[in-house]
Write a structure and sequence with these properties.
about 400 residues; binds iron/sulfur cluster; 2 domains; elongated
């Protein structure tokens, strides 16, 4: 581990604009410039350790002496929940000459994770550069395609906007066509995410797998921590920092509304599928039926959560994150909002002649959402769960350094 004096000299060199020596040193170790910055910052944190109780990153960091392994840096970056607490508590944060900004450095490496491990890699790179445009263009293209499909079959023309269709979606798109379209899109999203997270897991967890009992306990704890968003509480339960030093639980609550809203919508679709295939009960379902109740509650959660996250995103301190990621963040939020708004509109006006058009819009947006899931902000949830599982496993294993308390 480098001394604080050595790190001070390194920070002064960087602050003076001479990054050449620093870059060459880390480049030789196979690290990117962003990973090198995380390594530098963590060396300072490892000597300081003031933030040990804030989140899992610091006790995980304390189990290491050196930070020149790509795998460790990717793991720790994804373990960070970007709550901002360690920036606002840090005596070495900018404008201090050390320039320690853990959340920002971690955010930049996380973006590299999403693109480096993406499958196929070319799509990860594309989304990184054009998140918002690409998402909206995909949604627009699919909506247009579906409208043209309806027009070509004459349904939109033969069903004037005033003619009710009794909410019968299958009069517009046959059930089997919908199953095929969404089966392919959903299957692709699951496959791409699974390949990405498997590559990530293989990199951060080489070597012998843990014993079965350890794996079971770690899995339970990681699932609890992920579902509760434990590390969005700032380590003291009062929450994250958003625009300033003040703590708030808004980010945690908006994330929960978004996640559980999404899961309720997914449950609504799953229950409707079971009704269709196993109970021979076909859509449209009554407003008091389980699929409609689940879908309505999910849609409302998916409207309130992303709206709140967008508001936080626009007001967040620029020091917390990586400005380059804003388009990607907002693209995902925009698609979630469009999904819930179009879904609720479809439910509300399903018995009117506007239904075919609303159906085309909703289906196009949902397909765009699923097609872009593996290459955008959604991926952060998957990689973070993997990092939480790694931490829950690691903390149950002997600490060979014997330096850091878990
Ligand atoms: S973020 Fe700052 S205060 Fe916290 S451990 Fe690192 S150097 Fe210390
Ligand atoms: S920003 Fe929050 S979650 Fe990330 S390292 Fe700092 S305290 Fe931990």
């Amino acid at each position: 581990m480098q001394s604080l004096e050595a790190l001070t000299r390194e920070a002064q060199t960087l602050a003076g604009g001479d990054t050449t020596e620093h870059s060459i040193t880390w480049h030789k170790k196979g690290l990117s410039a962003n990973e090198a910055e995380v390594a530098r910052v963590l060396q300072i944190c490892n000597a300081c350790r003031y933030c040990e109780g804030f989140c899992a990153v610091f006790p995980a960091m304390a189990r290491r002496l050196e930070f020149d392994h790509k795998a460790d840096l990717n793991y720790l970056a994804n373990l960070c929940h970007n709550c901002g607490a360690c920036l606002h508590a840090c005596q070495y944060a900018p404008p201090h000459e050390f320039g320690v900004n853990v959340p920002q450095a971690m955010a930049k490496v996380r973006l590299e994770t999403y693109t480096d491990f993406a499958w196929p890699a070319s799509l990860g790179q594309l989304y990184k550069n054009n998140g918002l445009t690409l998402s909206l263009a995909t949604a627009f293209g699919l909506v247009l395609f579906l409208i043209l499909t309806i027009l070509s079959t004459g349904e939109l023309l033969n069903q004037p906007m005033t003619t009710p269709l009794s909410g019968n979606f299958y009069a517009i798109f046959p059930h089997n066509t919908l199953v095929l379209m969404f089966g392919l899109v959903f299957g692709f999203a699951v496959l791409a995410l699974a390949i990405g997270v498997r590559r990530f897991w293989k990199e951060i967890s080489p070597g012998q797998p843990a014993e079965a009992a350890t794996r079971k306990a770690a899995l339970g704890e990681a699932a609890r921590d992920a579902l509760r968003l434990k590390y969005l509480d700032g380590g003291h339960g009062e929450g994250c920092n958003d625009e300033n030093d003040r703590f708030t639980l808004r980010r945690r609550r908006f994330h929960h509304l978004t996640f559980y809203g999404f899961m309720l919508c997914f449950a609504a679709t799953s229950v409707a599928t079971l009704y269709h295939y196993f109970l021979d009960l076909h859509a449209p379902y009554a407003p008091t039926s389980l699929p409609v109740i689940l879908g309505t509650l999910g849609g409302l959660g998916l409207l309130a959560g992303p709206a709140g996250l967008l508001w936080l995103n626009m007001n967040r301190s620029p020091l917390h994150g990586d400005a380059a990621q804003k388009p990607m963040d907002r693209a995902f939020i925009a698609l979630l909002l469009l999904t819930s708004a179009s879904g609720l509109a479809l439910l509300f006006w399903r018995n009117t002649g506007a239904m075919p058009l609303l159906l085309a819009i909703h289906l196009g947006v949902v397909m765009a959402l699923f097609l872009t899931l593996p290459y955008g902000k959604f991926a952060h949830g998957i990689y973070r769960c993997a990092a939480l599982l790694k931490w829950s496993t690691e903390k149950r294993q002997p600490n060979n350094l014997g330096l850091g308390g878990d």
